């Protein structure tokens, strides 16, 4: 039997990941089974298992693919470096504008995948922990980037600008993360819900603008 080329191998793995993505957008990840992905690819049962030994390996590569194609770390670093600590208020506003635009570009399918991942983390934390442990520190989601980069930046702002925020940087960061989650959930619901009183009326740009102003007020004390 001729040896399969690396290019062919990676092409097939990508076809499987793309199929897994389509399945995971349609239904909660916690209810996805390997047979769903097999059916979506049209491959035989044996063919799938030549490339992945189980569903968690597929989800592992799916997370890596999604994160690598939707990185915001360089954009956030650029905004914060350019502003320095002197223009920290502007940096926060521009960062939140960037988050809003990032959400719009991702679209509701990818955002639903993020929400379903959160649901899996709540329903089966040990399983998610095993998957995340294998990802390594280099595979950063937008939320991890927000937590790490923004946390370090706000700490430096407080120190260099001698601010006395009304809450600790850790608490402010937790507020930002919780709000980020809420904005995503609200946006996806409003875009997917067919009721005229809801559809299209949840604007991420406006919501992230409110987040920026709230953090600025807390930072000023």
SSE order and pairing:
Layout: H1 6-26, H2 34-41, H3 45-48, H4 55-68, H5 73-83, H6 88-123, H7 125-135, H8 142-160, H9 169-192, H10 204-220
Helix pairs in contact: 1-2, 1-4, 4-7, 5-6, 5-8, 6-7, 6-9, 6-10, 8-9, 9-10
What does this structure look like?
The protein is mainly α and 221 residues long. It has helices at residues 6-26, 34-41, 45-48, 55-68, 73-83, 88-123, 125-135, 142-160, 169-192, 204-220. The chain is elongated and about 60 Å long. The model has no long low-confidence stretch (mean pLDDT 87).
Profile the largest sheet: none
CATH topology of the largest domain: Tetracycline Repressor, domain 2
Q: Tally the helices: what do you get?
A: 10
Integer-rounded radius of gyration: 20 Å
Whole-number count of domains: 2
Strand tally, please?
Answer: 0
Strand residue percentage: under 5%
Could you write a compact summary of the structure shown?
The protein is mostly helical and 221 residues long.
Descriptors:
Tetracycline Repressor, domain 2, 221 residues, 10 helices, single chain, mainly alpha, Arc Repressor Mutant, subunit A, elongated
């Amino acid at each position: 039997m001729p040896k399969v080329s690396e290019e062919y191998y990676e092409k097939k793995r990508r076809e499987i990941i793309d199929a897994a993505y389509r399945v995971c957008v349609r239904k909660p990840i916690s209810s996805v089974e390997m047979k769903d992905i097999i059916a979506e690819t049209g491959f035989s049962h044996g063919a799938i298992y030549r490339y992945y030994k189980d569903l968690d390996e597929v989800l592992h590569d799916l997370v890596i693919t999604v994160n690598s194609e939707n990185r915001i770390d360089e954009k956030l670093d650029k905004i914060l470096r350019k502003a320095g600590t002197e223009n920290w208020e502007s940096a926060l506003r521009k960062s939140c504008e960037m988050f809003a635009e990032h959400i719009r570009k991702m679209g509701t399918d990818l955002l639903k995948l993020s929400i379903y991942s959160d649901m899996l983390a709540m329903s089966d934390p040990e399983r998610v922990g095993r998957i995340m442990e294998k990802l390594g520190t280099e595979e950063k989601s937008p939320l991890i980037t927000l937590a790490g980069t923004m946390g370090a930046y706000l700490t430096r702002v407080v120190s260099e600008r001698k601010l006395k925020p009304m809450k600790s940087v850790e608490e402010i960061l937790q507020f930002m993360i919780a709000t980020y989650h809420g904005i995503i959930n609200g946006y996806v619901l409003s875009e997917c819900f067919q009721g005229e009183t809801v559809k299209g009326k949840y604007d991420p740009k406006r919501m992230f603008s409110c987040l920026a102003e709230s953090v600025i007020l807390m930072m000023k004390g």
